[in-house]
Amino acid sequence: MASAKATRQQDYVWLIGFPTDELPGNRLPSWAEVLQRYFRLHQDEKLEIRNAATVVVHEAMCIWEKARIPTGEERNIIAKLERKVEQYRSILKGKSRRSAPQIKKEHEFQASLMDLFDIAHIDALQLVKIHEDREFLMAQREPGRRGFMVGIDKVLAAKEERTFYRHQLATDRMQREVKEKSVREETAELTSSSDSNAEVSDNDDNSTTPSTAKRSCRARNVVTANLTAALDRTKVSDRCAVHILSAAACALGHDPSQLAINRSSIRRSRRTQRKSLAEEVQVSYSPNTSLIVHWDGKLLPDHDKQKVDRLPVIVTDPRGTPKLLGVPKLPAGTGQATANAVVQCLEDWKLSDKVVGMSFDTTSSNTGSALGACTILEQKLGRPLLHFACRHHILELVAEAAFTTCFGPSAGPDIAIFKRFQSGWNFIDQSKFEPMMPGDLDSVVGDAFLDCKEQVVSFCIQKLKSAQPRDDYCELLELTIILFGECPPRGFKFMQPGALHRARWMARMIYGIKIFLFRSQFRLTAKEVSGLKRFTAFTGTLYIKAWFSAPSAIAAPAGDLTFLQELLSYPDSDIAKATSKKFANHLWYLSEELAGLALFDESVELDVKRMMVAALKENSQDNPQPRVQVDLAAKEAIAAKTVADFVTSASLRTFTAFDVSVDFLEKDPSEWKDDTSFQSSQQILRGIATVNDFAERGVSLIQDYNLILTHDEQQRQYLLQVVELHRHQHPDAKKTTTLHDTS
Known about the structure:
With 743 residues, the protein is mostly helical. It contains 29 helices and eight strands. A five-stranded mixed β-sheet has the order 5-4-1-7-8, with helices on both faces. It has a three-stranded antiparallel β-sheet with strand order 2-3-6. Strand 2 and strand 3 (307-310) form a beta hairpin. Helix 11 (263-284) crosses helix 29 (713-729), helix 15 (391-407) runs antiparallel to helix 23 and helix 20 (506-517) crosses helix 21 (526-549). The chain is elongated and about 105 Å long.
């Protein structure tokens, strides 16, 4: 007896009681009962903490299911039990201390053991439809857990049995129908084949008896590859496609009932065709030239309403032809995640060995010396790449520096003066505009503005004659011409003020010039008038030409050096200091590797080109820096520099990367124009992309098709390939007869 008593005392769990072999099933378990069962499994049966908690939770959920009360998620319940066990272990550690706080903890814990182990769903009282079950749950939550579960509700059990029986009958009926349909289709195919033979024999016998064989009941699939691409590009959903295709079939004299026009069939066909088209595009894309990889991140909503980083990855060849590789999700907007995604896209398309350069926005996540995407990408590919930083992005930073100098630092996402002008646009008389006159500016700035008038106006008119990728580009060129007091080719027309968010940098230029032109009709403070004069003068004098010349690769080195020299010598010293400091941090195209592009720039003087050829023989550093650092304090030294001062033997690497001939270097620069080697090399290098606009178009594409047509990530990637292909084949909404469906 003494031995049995000692064993029983050893089994006792302090504060909790004796372990049990099962949970009582006549009411919902309490904390004490759950913990007693847990310690039986953990201490006696030697289960691990997580396994013991899982077993107890399963048993408890079975009792709650018997009570017909919905519970929460299993993983959350297990975590809840583990927290209680951890609380107990924390109290157990202080068992030997009989302090007041320790005793209070013990009493509170022991009192809580009588409470319900509440694992009900958060909306259980709304989900439970039977009134008695709701009352039972509320009673169990009371102190003492009032109520018990006894007997079986025979009425409810009979009702559930009838429901289950009806459901089983419906399932059996559906299975029979599917089986019968399959048999009918097989029979129809065999019958169709025999009908063809019968018709031949009937014709031979000149028989006029009609065939009595059954016609095939299989509906004809009308969703071809071209139709899929057209529906995807125009963002037509599967449901809308049913109405459109049915009406089109009737208009063309077909019976829609004989065609596979229903949502499910259309959806399946479109998914299949998308995959087939996308895979065909990937297999057929095999460029035999060097490539530049572009990327640009964008934070976009996902289907779960969470924001995710999307990264369009695009490659271009020396002709500037873009190809979208994919728009993967990023786990984070870091340089590591960006580089991983770019490498994965290149490997999927088997293009890793053909990439020789990178085009990117100059954010720290891209350009960081240790954790930047460019550095990590070079490490992953195992070789150095040419750095074609986006010149548009660099010039946006310069514009921001000039705007901040004139109007002060940012105070919010919108610019107050622009917002006021937008709301008052309807009260503006557009025929009464006032161009800028030299007298409106300080004498030195006014003279500079007047001196460049003819050159800038001629430049803007020339650019308007060529195609511009966006309407706001054209608007900015026209406003600049009007600012100088001249008339644009299409006359004086002013667009309704558009987007004014700070992220849209061009809004600063367009709004600034437009407000200045109508300054007499718009209430402005003296500080605002002064800021507008300074900013619009800088825009017209220096910035416009630099921006619209940015896409030229061969003009980039000399153009950047000239722009830096002009910024340093700009008469407005505050603007000159802010903009030159910003621009000096981004002299990527004056690096040793890229400065040699100026050999093909027709604006570079022959004497400078002769010095460049001589400089090509000078030894370079083993690992030249991708961008040049200059001392802005030495203005005179910078003003005296030419692009030849940045050329070394490393400049030849660019020509080697794009496999262009340099035989013309044996001749004098005056003879290069007639040299076929020079002409072919110039044609190749002229097409290099020095702006990241291609990636921005990829961002626009994923924004348009991000949350429509499909929720499947793989299908979304196929969709983007299909839309890009269709846009390339059909850039305009014109009828074509050159494309035939064979699918």
